Amino acid sequence: MHKKEIAMRIRTLREERNLHQKEVAAVLGISQPAYSDLENGHTMFTAIALDKLADFYEMGLDELLRQNGATLNMYDRSSNGYNAYHMEHRHGMDEEVMDKFLSAIQANTEMMKVLAEQQAALLKLVSKNPLEH
User: Fold this and answer.
1) Which is nearest to 84 in space by CA: 109, 112, 47, 49?
2) Which residues in the chain belong to E strands, given as ranges?
3) pLDDT (tens digit per residue) in 23-44
4) Which CATH homologous superfamily contains domain 3-67?
5) Which one, out of 53, 87, 106, 113, has a CA that is 20 to 30 A from the CA of 15?
6) pLDDT tens digits, residue range 83-116?
7) Among 68, 72, 73, which residue's Cα sits nearest to residue 92?
8) C-beta separation of 54 from 28 below 8 A
9) What's the pTM?
10) How far apart, in Å, are the Cα atoms of 29 and each of 8, 14, 22, 26, 111?
11) Cα(124)–Cα(116) distance, integer angstroms
């Protein structure tokens, strides 16, 4: 998501709640003209400002940034712990795309296990003393 998309999302949230720029600017501790520049995409929201806005609008940061999109949750260790990211199914997410994504993660995990086993075997061979034979 680039700054124009973030700005449009933030503006939509403000307008849906019938708030004025001055009110939201006060939440961020900035002037209304500075907030206007943010909301129009002329300047970029900082991570701190986005976090404050997420709290203000009573939503998670991912929800603030991804209206009707897939949500990334770094703390969900589902799928047998193989992937730290869990795609949450939301409005219009195609099941087939989700299945392909999860299959790719699973295949990648299996390949990583094979590589780890091969590396361990190689290290065992390399670490043997040639004089022991």
Assistant:
1) 109
2) 71-73, 86-88
3) 999 999 999 999 999 998 888 8
4) lambda repressor-like DNA-binding domains (1.10.260.40)
5) 87
6) 333 344 344 456 777 677 777 778 888 888 888 8
7) 68
8) no
9) 0.51
10) 20, 16, 10, 5, 50
11) 12
Provide the angle, in degrees to the nearest 10, between the axes of the packed helices 32-39 and 3-16. 120
Q: What radius of gyration, in Å, describes the C-alpha atoms of the chain?
A: 23
Give the dihedral sign, CA 76/58/62/103: positive
Residue 1 has pLDDT above 70, yes or no: no
Distance CA 67, CA 10 (A): 10
Residue-by-residue DSSP string for 5-35: HHHHHHHHHHHHTT--HHHHHHHHTS-HHHH
Task: Indicate the burial class of 66 (C-beta count within 10 angstroms; 0-12, 13-18, 19 or more).
Answer: middle
Cα distance between the two ends of the chain: 60
- Amino acid letter for position 4: K
